[in-house]
């Protein structure tokens, strides 16, 4: 990057909202604590830090061995005034009319803040733990039917029956209504089936952090599928990163390599080729290069076998904020950032990263041009950054 164009790219989102993942206890990938329980004091503190830090949403994850996402989302709704809880939901675990009822109840309790992220399921063994033996392609077909039934359950004015490929019921409804209108539905994934369902039906489509050009082509793909389905409102784009920040780029790289040694030790049990396409893509990027664009680091994906969102943004708050703006310029309007030192990182992002991004977006809205943050904090576009990244690897 030798020159900087102050004009706002035509693909840029004019606004961005921030997401974090809620953690229920102090266990981290840096220092795991053997526990499946909820540390209520910690959970309250964590959620309060998100509200105070200016986040807009928090994701309540779901797995066969985790706390229930509906219950934890309801707790978040009562512990906060503004944060929007995102319920991770697997269609195999909750019948669609019941899921619609639960989500509408959460939406009423939070006065319109509920969001749902539907997980079709990327791992056969994990799905089987709760009795789901559908093959992956069928799981996305089930998600498609599920989305339709959620929306019908929220809006049908009279009882209706359904006899589909995966669900059947008689004379349901009228269902319990959301607070106002509908509830945003998010879908993620990198398979052809995920794109087909998400493009046609999702309000939000979710990606893990990828190199800028690759992500842009994926955004184009999902938006074209939406247009092909006759949609005039395109899905919002959600992208997830694991930033590692410090006062300077050099100090951030020292922290990053300390982190990755600890994470690698704790993830040594994850081997073999992942089933889901998103993890396969993340590992392919990691095999090709450790560093992409301004600040994207893939080593964290490599050492975890891409078990979940794991690509990092490394640098000073200014460099990481500039890198986030690069993705906003590609069309992302929902940015999920969560750290490896979970609570401390969430606080630091709220203090040092979110304000920089919002300041730049406000500048753009006022002036119609990009500010200087991306021009002045070049990260990997300047030679010294790469020297910092490699100087401490041994």
TrEMBL record:
InterPro entries with a match to the protein in the record: Luciferase-like_dom, Luciferase-like_sf, SsuD_RutA_monooxygenase
Keywords carried by this UniProt record: Flavoprotein, FMN, Monooxygenase, Oxidoreductase
Residue ranges annotated for the Luciferase-like domain, each copy included: 34-333
One Pfam family this sequence matches: Bac_luciferase
Lineage: superkingdom: Bacteria
Protein name as it appears in the record: Luciferase-like domain-containing protein
PANTHER family: ALKANESULFONATE MONOOXYGENASE, ALKANESULFONATE MONOOXYGENASE-RELATED
Signal peptide stretch: none
Gene3D superfamilies noted in UniProt: Luciferase-like domain
